[in-house]
Structures are given as C-alpha cells and as structure tokens.
Amino acid sequence: DIQMTQSPSSLSASVGDRVTITCRASQSISSYLNWYQQKPGKAPKLLIYAASSLQSAVPSRFSGSGSGTDFTLTISSLQPEDFATYYCQESYSTPFTFGPGTKVDIK
Amino acid sequence: EVQLVESGGGLVRPGGSLRLSCAASGFTFSDYAMSWVRQAPGKGLQWVSAMSGGGGSTYYADSVKGRFTTSRDNSKNTLYLQMNSLRAEDTAVYYCAKYVIPWEDGMDVWGQGTTVTVSS
What we know:
A: four-stranded antiparallel sheet; globular
C-alpha cells in the first residue's frame, strides 16, 4: 500500500497569510493526488483533483502543484472560512490512502 | 439536488454486526463508483472500501478485508456496508461518498455520516 505523509501536522496563521501544505507519497503516484478540506463536524469537501485542477465552485485562492511523490496545496490569502483540516489522498492504487491531515487554525 | 444520506449506525458489542445504508438521489447512481470512508473520534480520514458503478468490482482496506462487505442495489439507489466481527477500533463516523468520472479525480459528494460505536 502507498503511504502518505503531510507536513506540517498543524499550523497557525492569520487572515491574509499565504499558507503552504506539503504531501508526500511513499512511491510515485504521477498526478493521482486529491486534496480535501474538512471543518469540525462536517463531511470533507473536494478542493483539488489530479494534483492541480480546481474543483468546481472552489475559490481560486486554492491551488495545487506537484507530481511523482511531492505535492503542495497553497492558499494564497487565507480567509476566515479556510480554518479547517486539510487532507491529501492518493488515487493511484487502492486502497486510496489519505494523509494524516494538516490543521490550520487562527494565530 | 445531489444527496447522500447514511443510516444504520449505532451501538454494537465487540464481535457483533451492523449494516449501514447510503441512499443516493439527484444523479444516475449506477453510473458512479461509490466509497465508504470512516473517521475515528479525533482522528483523520480512513478509506474503507469502494465499489464500481455496476457493482462488479470491489476494493477494501486491509483493516476491514474479510470482515466488511460493500454492496449496492442500483434499482434502489442504495449503497450498503455490512460490518461483521466488529472491533473497538471500528468505532467511527462512517461516510459514504460518490466518485467523479474518472474515479481517480476524487469524491465530490459526501453524506453527513453515521456513527458506529463498538463497545461492551
């Protein structure tokens, strides 16, 4: 099975900050990488698919990049509604493993 | 409106069984692969299983293989998760989710989740 790691595990940031979250796969997964946002008590929401494609209706301040084993989710200017936990997930081979998550909270 | 509604969660003793259901509406259910994803209290997301739109292919996480069975009834627009030999570590909120096409591009619709508690 492919193992996914994320860094940092948590971060504190202010509204307007640029935030970068890194995800790493234990083997090459090409661009088969998706990003989800989850707020407390809510279901996850798909943000980015295929490493860099923005899901419909997701604000353009979210972007993704990377291929192979290293991937990045960037929020260009953090907004109050962006405080949440972010998960990467590989979709290269089953089981489609999630990363452990990165919690973004208010500084 | 595209919607998924899970049901069937509850309290069950270790070694017991439970069947979860996920009722889908607002899309052609049989066209889409579906998945179960769980989240233990205070923990991250764990992919549990997936099934192709026609039901011919099913995939499981190692942690549930041999104990859980995913099925679907496309005539009823419903996905199921039969959980047997339940353990304390299966305690979680269980979400069903719909894949996009192709399924590698992620899960775009999620239910609200149903809670399973395994405890004596």
